[in-house]
Amino acid sequence: MVLIAREFFVVLVEPKYSGNVGAVARVMMNFDFSNLYLVNPCELDKDCFSRAMHASSIIENAKIFDSFEKAIKDLDFLVATSSVATDSEKKHLRKAILVEDFSKKILEVDGRIGLIFGREDFGLYNSEIEKCDLLVKIPTSEKYPSLNLSHAVCITLYNLYLSLKSPSLKTGRRLNHVEKEKLFEFLSLLLDEIEYPEHKRKNTMIMLRRILGRAMPSKWEYHTLMGILSGTIEKIKKIK
User: Fold this and answer.
1) Which one of 3, 125, 132, 145 has the fewest beta carbons within 10 angstroms of its own beta carbon?
2) Euclidean distance between the first and the last CA atom of the chain, given in angstroms as a whole number
3) Strand segments (E) across the chain
4) Is 65 exposed, middle or buried (0-12, 13-18, 19+ CB in 10 A)?
5) Predicted local confidence at residue 88, as pLDDT
6) Nearest Cα to Cα of residue 38 among 7, 8, 65
7) Could you tell me if 208 and 187 are in contact, meaning their C-beta atoms sit under 8 angstroms apart?
């Protein structure tokens, strides 16, 4: 039986308050996570290190990026977090799964997994969520659904910690970033060949990304899908 190799990265997008960054580092150490990525962060001042307590090394070793795209470039699977979600079957962008379900489902994934947390005031932009494979929501009161950044990170990592301490063994390897993007490239080519309506295209591609994000196909399933897509595209071209 093959043990799945995975590595988690906490990605904070444009955090505004240094104290929150320090508190995030502290809860990361509480639950055995050490990789911190910061996108255009505020100044990491005294308050940051004071709140980090004994986790200052996580701050010192954090990688800083000047854009979201650069931060996620080498990550294989992206998990967005948001307090704004929907139950609508047609609004794929904000279709979320609960953090408890996510923490178990993610055990099926290997590679470099990015846990993406947004700005304290505006959260993640739609353009950032579009690039993610899953959207995760923490259940909260409808009267005040928005959690403090460090609290949201803490709840997410706590759930992951519980799952990782008693994981179900899985076999096989899941898709890496390059394989996944190649699959979406072929899906896009297929939409071109069937002259799929342009005004529906963006929403459909997001839907497909969410479906594959939930399915977490194995490498064998990936090659089967690629074979089907490749054969279908070639067949359509010959008919044309």
Assistant:
1) 3
2) 47
3) 6-13, 36-39, 63-65, 77-81, 97-98, 111-117, 134-137
4) middle
5) 53
6) 65
7) yes
Tokens representing 48?
């940051």
pTM of the model: 0.72
Q: Burial code of 216-231, b = ≥16 C-beta within 10 A, e = fewer? A: bbbeeebeebeeebee
**Structure-block tokens of residue 206:** 């997001």
How many of the other CB atoms lie within 10 Å of CB of 92? Answer: 20
Torsion sign, CA atoms 23, 24, 25, 28 = positive
74: burial class by Cβ within 10 Å (0-12, 13-18, 19+)? exposed
The answer for residues whose C-beta is within 8 angstroms of residue 180's C-beta and 6 or more apart is 76, 77, 133, 212
Paired tokens of 28: 């990361």
CA 56/CA 151 separation, integer angstroms: 18
Angle between helices 219-239 and 177-193 (to 10 degrees): 20
Tokens representing 88? 């609508």
